[in-house]
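User: Quick sanity check before I run a bigger batch. Here is a single chain. Can you write out its predicted 3D structure?
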Amino acid sequence: MNVPAILMITGIIAYPLAYALYLSFHKVGVGELRTGIMPFYGVNNFLNLLQDSLFWYSVQNTLKFSAIVVIGEVLLGVGIAFIIEKTEGRLSNFTRLIMLLPWAVPPIINALLWSFIYSAEYGYLNAILLGLGFIDHFVMWLGDPKLALYAVAFAYIWRTTPFSVLLIHAAMQGIPRELYEAGNVDGTNAWQSFRYIMLPLIAPTVIIVMILRTTWAFQVFDEIFGMTGGGPGNSTWVASYYSYRYAFQPPLDVGLGAASAFVLALMIGILAFLYIKFLKRSEVEWA
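Assistant: Done. Predicted structure follows.
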């Protein structure tokens, strides 16, 4: 009964993964793609990768971007989910629909939308901030190397936070009401109720959200590609964009691009392992 599923997984996931691993150990450039002959290159692609300062700069940007996104989404996810939980019945379905709309926006459309908002010439963000007196001149949000990565991160958080809200709110709804009633009898205030009742019970879900959001943040590409193209300069290069640029644009080194993708996958695996270890330990501490 599982044969069709196994065949589908093999065809969609296993084969491309194995072929990418094969490419990472071979020299695959323009000449090799033209002739179809890809000589074995050993670990040279990985050695070249680890010696490339631009790769490590991309990894640094990836870590920074992921930290901003995960912290922002978890805080917003818990906060928004808590507000929804405490105002149950007062928020209309229309309001909830509006909140979920960003999650339905395709990533590349989100990139184009926020590129327009951030525009230094006609963007609404500059116009609003200037009108409120927060700035005295138009800011180049995507043209300033110091601001561009943060601007992309904010746009990414806007699109993906509803996912975190859905999971965390579902966890909140699963908490037995009797626990809150018992807490009220014991004289707990709102903060104590959140700290000692709600937070321990939603902690496993929050960790799962962190695992998923970290994994996806490490793979961010569409917003980077659509908003900055890695610029200005190399200031918004992340690991996935590094893989794309080397594999599909000059110098068209597919082997190096495949190697960088596997290093990125390894980093994601290590982070997921650390998250899971933390989850198991937190379950003991919260108990």
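Residues 53-86 form the longest helix (34 residues).

User: Great, the batch can go ahead then.
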